[in-house]
Amino acid sequence: MSLKVVVAEDAALMREGLVGVLTRFGHQVCAAVGDAEALMAAARAHRPDLVLTDIRMPPGLGDDGLRAAVALRRDRPELPVLVLSQYLEQSYATHLLDLGGQSGVGYLLKDRVAAVTEFADAVAQVAGGGTVLDPEVVRQLLRRRQDPLGRLTPREREVLALMAEGRSNAAIARSLYVSVAAVNKHIGSILQRLDLPVDGDAHRRVLAVLAYLRN
């Protein structure tokens, strides 16, 4: 099956290599771009059958590619998206799997694609509505599910440990030499990352401490 594909990759050699592989397998690359803004424009102009994108790219050199993919899926929930990244980030993988019911999505690590045919098969599977994940991505996601505290940053773990000691936000701020506003922000992030129900801040705080003590 021939597909119309938009490719987004900021490394020129990698981008041209992807175009060559896709063309070799009979696909039409309707645009090959090097930044997230160009990806958005190309995908909306060409309405491709698949978007193939890196995560980290200009203009911000952060998760611009992933955020562009999320925006495109918001416009077209059925649009298949395959991420080909050098980095394994659990938060990126989770965010990607939240796109449109987990259908038509893929996350492959560049250095772990063993063969061109393996890559071509992944393109076909994602375009057909399947989900393709690198085995290492699956292992990381399972590990994260088993240990909810794995979702927290080191600083958030410090804040949660002090919460478990029964310290107030002001006391935590003094201990960590940060502002109370910064502590409030960390606690909000902790509650969100642990997927705690919204039953009142006090109750959620207790649940967060219990999660810490269990681990």
TrEMBL record:
CDD domains: LuxR_C_like, REC_NarL-like. SMART domains: HTH_LUXR (SM00421), REC (SM00448). The keyword Transcription regulation applies. Keywords: DNA-binding, Phosphoprotein, Transcription, Transcription regulation. The modification 4-aspartylphosphate is found at residue 54. GO terms for molecular function: DNA binding. PROSITE patterns: HTH_LUXR_2, RESPONSE_REGULATORY. One of its GO terms (biological process) is phosphorelay signal transduction system. InterPro entries: CheY-like_superfamily, NreC/VraR/RcsB-like_REC, Sig_transdc_resp-reg_C-effctor, Sig_transdc_resp-reg_receiver, Tscrpt_reg_LuxR_C, WalR-like. Residues 4-125 form the Response regulatory domain. It comes from the Bacteria. Residues 145-215 form the HTH luxR-type domain. This is DNA-binding response regulator.
